[in-house]
Amino acid sequence: MSATRHVDVAIVGAGPAGLAAGVAARQEGARSVVVFERDWEPGGILQQCIHPGFGLHTFGEELTGPEYVHRYVTRAREAGVEFDLNTMVFQLDKPAPKDGDKDDEDENENKVEKNVTFWTMRPERGIERIEAKSLVLAMGCRERPAGALGIAGSRPSGVYTAGTAQRFVNMEGLMPGTKVAIMGTGDIGLIMARRMLLEGADVVGVFEIMPWVSGLRRNIAQCLDDFGIPYYLNHSVRELRGRGRLEGVGVVEVGPDRRPIPGSEQFVACDTLLLAVGLIPENELSRMAGIEIEPLTGGPVVNEFMQTSEACVFAAGNVVVVYDLVDFVSRQGERAGTYAARYALGRLEKTKREFKVVPGNNIRILSPQILTGEDDVTVYLRVGTPVEGKCRLYAEPGLFSQNLRYARPGEMNEIKLSASKLKSLAPDVTSVTIGLEIL
Known about the structure:
Elements: E1 5-12, H1 16-27, E2 33-36, E3 52-54, E4 63-64, H2 65-79, E5 82-84, E6 88-92, E7 96-97, E8 114-122, E9 126-137, E10 141-143, E11 152-153, E12 159-161, H3 162-172, E13 179-183, H4 187-198, E14 202-208, H5 217-224, E15 231-233, E16 235-241, E17 248-253, E18 266-269, E19 272-275, E20 279-281, H6 284-288, E21 313-315, H7 326-344, E22 355-359, E23 363-367, E24 370-371, E25 377-383, E26 391-396, E27 400-404, E28 413-417, H8 419-423, E29 431-438
Parallel strand pairs: 1-2, 1-9, 2-5, 9-21, 11-16, 12-19, 13-14, 13-19, 14-15, 22-29
Antiparallel strand pairs: 3-4, 6-8, 7-8, 8-9, 10-20, 16-17, 17-18, 22-24, 23-25, 25-28, 26-27, 26-29
Helix pairs in contact: 1-2, 1-7, 3-4, 4-5
């Protein structure tokens, strides 16, 4: 094993959040910025997203996933970001105080300057110990697999997550099957319904347990409606049938309590089932380091600097909360990279005040969860249930109010809060409540 390697800003993950963080960290003045990526190429999931729809906010034009990645990789290399590819980060140690610092139990832990140490494994180098002045977690998210759903029946081949099928078709040139059913209306599932149809498969239907679509409405229109692919709300796949290879699925209609309605069972013949039933932030490393996790999102608790409960560790992208647009992921990656560099350079001042962001009426998830009033901030959020009519999004006390025509769980909303307004709040105010009311 080689000696410890020292870097200013380390980034785990070379997806859109990690790439943006690397560029921003170099632009902020960090000298050594290294991105560690377990894949052979940078880009993350966007490498396999060959459909258009990316970059409208970032570049002002519609790009495919590989085109979007290429632009950011070019930016990163030109900025001097280093890449350690085919490198797995398998251990993240709890950050320790820097030499000379003493951890006073009566003080806020964030006041103690710390370094972060982690361990990597790469064929050419073996196991390596890395010590960084600051770290950005940008590992993204993973799909919820069949084993997490408790579907009855045997375990035949032909059951894939939608993202796995996307990689097979778009990168490996392999077709998972010829007669396809899709469980869930996540965006990747909707996009793969269209993709499988265009590749010659028969897509028999998309089945969603909720009474609303969980993905973007534009994907329902462009991927299902435009191609005549049927979708069924309040329906769930309850059983897999077939031995060796999937022969079909048992589908049932559910009531408002999401329990099966007796007598509604039907058999749908298919040889392939794609699962688009939710994404889970990849936070095994975060937990290793003892970083506080937000139960509602499954990602680290962060402030507007994208700083976690460990002051030297930052997080951005889908590892924090699952976004609907890659442009938002890149935007938060830039923010994390900027402040991670400032921390590494000793230019990130300790915060004097904190406000906890509390989800109010009909708010399911939001990020960041802590505000300091030291910088303007955009809070990203998703509503719990859809409102198809006039409603008002608010941040109290008296920080924000905006009337909306609708609000849907599949589409993120943004609240922009100014630092000056936060600083002007009365000294006894310690929280900000964000909610939605029907008008």
